[in-house]
Amino acid sequence: MKKWAILLITAFIFTITLAGYKTFLSITHPVKYENIIIESAIKFKLPPPLIASVINVESGYNLKAVSPKKALGLMQIKLDTANYLISYYKLDEQITEADLLTVQTNIKYGCMYLNYLMNKFNDLTTVLASYNAGETRVISWLKSDNYSANGKTLNSIPYLETSNYVAKVKNNLKFYSKVF
């Protein structure tokens, strides 16, 4: 009789702990806009966990997020970046800051930019560093023996903010890889 009571209490505590952990994860790693993320992942040949991880780190899934540098929305896209992508891919469209504060458009341009960077650098660390610090800055780092041994990938990231950003996105990938 005592063994059953101990087993029952242990199961109850485990269930409460697991529920608490799931609640904690739902706060720290929200999962929203799954359909749009999956559609964009397919269209731009990106893993859905990467998109979700970038959104989480960039904005914490806050659609109305605006950075001091005027990066907007879920994936923190600048209007200049979106306009560059429109020009680069010769798209017949125009975009406004208000457009970048909508779920569909923000994820579209964030994924388009990630895809562009993936095609250019073909290395996740370098891509994420570029997404955070800017492509021009990362190209200069790749030219330095202090940060790159081969001129194609980064061994070291000189900006602490960018280094932390890359680490956070990669850490989030572990969680989101289990969700998608």
CATH class of the largest domain: Mainly Alpha
Uncertain ranges:
11-25
| Element-level helix/strand string | HHHHHHHHH
> Count of DSSP helices?
9
Name the beta content range: under 5%
- CATH architecture type of the largest domain: Orthogonal Bundle
Q: Examine the coordinates and then state which fold CATH places here, giving the name of the CATH topology of the largest domain.
A: Lysozyme
Distance linking N and C termini? 43 Å
Summarize model confidence as the mean pLDDT. Answer: 89
What does the overall shape look like? globular
In short:
This protein has 180 residues and is an all-alpha fold. Helices cover 67% and strands 0% of the residues. The chain has two domains: 30 residues; 147 residues, Lysozyme (Orthogonal Bundle), CATH 1.10.530.10.
Please give the structural blueprint.
Layout (H helix, E strand, L loop, with lengths): L1 H27 L5 H11 L3 H12 L19 H10 L8 H4 L2 H19 L2 H10 L1 H8 L17 H20 L1
Descriptive overview:
The protein has 180 residues and is an all-alpha fold. The protein has two domains: 1-30; 33-179, Lysozyme (Orthogonal Bundle). It is built from nine helices and no strands. The longest helix has 27 residues, at 2-28. It is globular. The N and C termini lie far apart (43 Å).
